[in-house]
Design a protein that fits this description.
306 residues; alpha/beta; five-stranded mixed sheet; 10 helices; rod-shaped
């Protein structure tokens, strides 16, 4: 028995006539009669009897009718759900985001996603430097908002913005008197390392490590931390300086000053990253929503010069 048999059965029951049902189904009457007889043979009971008002349901037919209508409605709902998911109107979107981007992006991104994807179940997962690759690779997030982008084979990335780099320091530091800190002033200073730091053959190959090398700057890395929040806590404790993306200044504790660097290498890229083999129609509208949310306010850099 399949949905076609149930659809034919319901059509005859609603029309009370094989002929009228055949017209509604755009088919000839004899094949429809054969389908009804085959259905009755499968069930081992009559489903219709001839009455004064045409084809009337037997008790067995009545029992089947309500359940057949429900089955057809559920099947139709399933078909519509599949079409909606394929079109990106429904489904589940699990968004991963780096800790540092939380305050800066989510207040803009969440309303934008709710507006543009109203029928989609959206969940948010925090990611760190040590977890974002695993979360994306193991499909625990649909797409991640990464900084810097995850550069791996099998990972697709779309750059959605850049964050200028700032020097985070205790407010009492003499460098806080500068509006813009020359890179040469960092020579020999103590650095609290940021997430994403990699060491190969003794060389720091992270974005910040490469920036320092390009400017011939050597800083003593006192500690490497998992998140910018940890870095700022150590800066506040007087452990050293940290080079952070500008978004890290939003919601930072009092007692820390932030200053732009004279040469920040163009800033740190922010990208949407996902498994290249993930065929999910929600990724494209998600990227569009992120791009709309990544319109950084002009006052950001000025507001962090405390």
């Amino acid at each position: 028995m399949d949905l076609k048999h149930l659809r034919y059965f319901v059509a005859v029951a609603d029309a009370r006539s094989v002929g009228k049902a055949a017209m509604q189904l755009h088919m000839a009457q004899p094949p429809l009669s054969v389908h009804i007889r085959n259905l009755e043979a499968q069930l081992g009971t009559a489903l219709f009897r001839r009455g004064s008002r045409g084809m009337e349901l037997t008790d067995a037919g009545g029992a089947l009718y309500s359940r057949a209508k429900e089955a057809l409605a559920l099947a139709q709902d399933g078909f519509e759900a599949a079409r909606a998911v394929a079109a990106g109107r429904r489904g589940r979107l699990t968004v991963g985001y780096m800790f540092a981007l939380g305050y800066a992006v989510l207040p803009r991104l969440v309303p934008e996603l709710r507006r543009t994807l109203p029928g989609v179940d959206i969940q948010f997962v925090e990611m760190s430097a040590s977890t974002y690759e695993v979360l994306i690779n193991e499909f625990k997030v649909t797409a991640g908002l990464c900084m810097p982008p995850l550069q791996r084979s099998g990972i697709a990335t779309v750059t959605v913005g850049k964050q200028p780099l700032l020097l985070a320091m205790p407010a009492r530091s003499p460098l806080a008197r500068h509006k813009v800190v020359p890179m040469a002033k960092l020579q020999g200073m103590t650095l609290v390392g940021l997430p994403g730091t990699k060491v190969e053959n003794g060389a720091d190959t992270s974005f910040i490590g490469s920036l320092l090398r390009r400017n011939n700057i050597t800083m003593h890395i006192i500690q490497r931390v998992e998140t910018v929040h940890s870095a700022l806590a150590l800066v506040l404790a007087g452990e050293g300086f940290s080079i952070v993306p500008a978004c890290a200044a939003i919601g930072s504790p009092p007692g820390i000053s932030f200053r732009p660097l004279e040469d920040d290498g163009g800033g740190m890229e922010v990208a949407v990253c996902w498994r290249r083999d993930l065929d999910n129609p929600l990724i494209k509208p998600f990227i569009t929503a992120v791009q709309a949310a990544m319109a950084w306010p002009d006052t950001l850099t000025r507001s962090v010069r405390k």
